[in-house]
Specification:
By secondary structure, the protein is mostly beta strands. Helix content is 0%, strand content 46%.
Length: 138
């Protein structure tokens, strides 16, 4: 089983992970094969650290390929992460609904949906680790 290193989900100047917001990120690297699971974690570094993570959707996109956003993988979370829950639940692992393997360089396009309940957003830093059947992406 391969995996990425811990990846910070950041975007310069953006107000990320706000209530009912969709945030997107791109990670370019080597294909790690069929996606087995992802681990999402908040460092709980801010006062408003609780976070209602609704879902993540990942696409494996090959550069110079006409098919855009191919191979969608859906990760349903529907869980609160943060200070109000136990430390064990501050991390959350989930498994994809479907996946396929591509050869060559891959761009992982990640969409993160925050829940719409009051206080669903977080100001904390958020990280993911992506696990696949082969190799390490970055």
């Amino acid at each position: 089983t391969g995996q990425t290193r811990q990846l910070a989900l950041t975007s310069r100047g953006a107000d990320l992970f706000e209530q009912n917001q969709l945030d997107t990120f791109a990670i370019v690297g080597r294909d790690i094969g069929d996606l087995l699971e992802i681990n999402v974690e908040s460092d709980k570094s801010q006062l408003a650290a609780d976070w209602d993570l609704k879902e993540m959707v990942m696409w494996k996109i090959r550069p110079n390929n006409d098919d855009d956003k191919q191979l969608q993988v859906y990760f349903p979370f529907n869980a609160w992460l943060g200070q109000a829950v136990s430390k064990l639940n501050a991390k959350r692992e989930t498994y994809p609904s479907t996946d396929h393997h591509q050869k060559g360089p891959i761009c992982y396009h990640i969409s993160v949906k925050t829940g719409k309940d009051f206080g669903a957003g977080t100001n904390a830093n958020v990280f993911i680790i992506i696990y696949g059947k082969t190799g390490r992406t970055v």
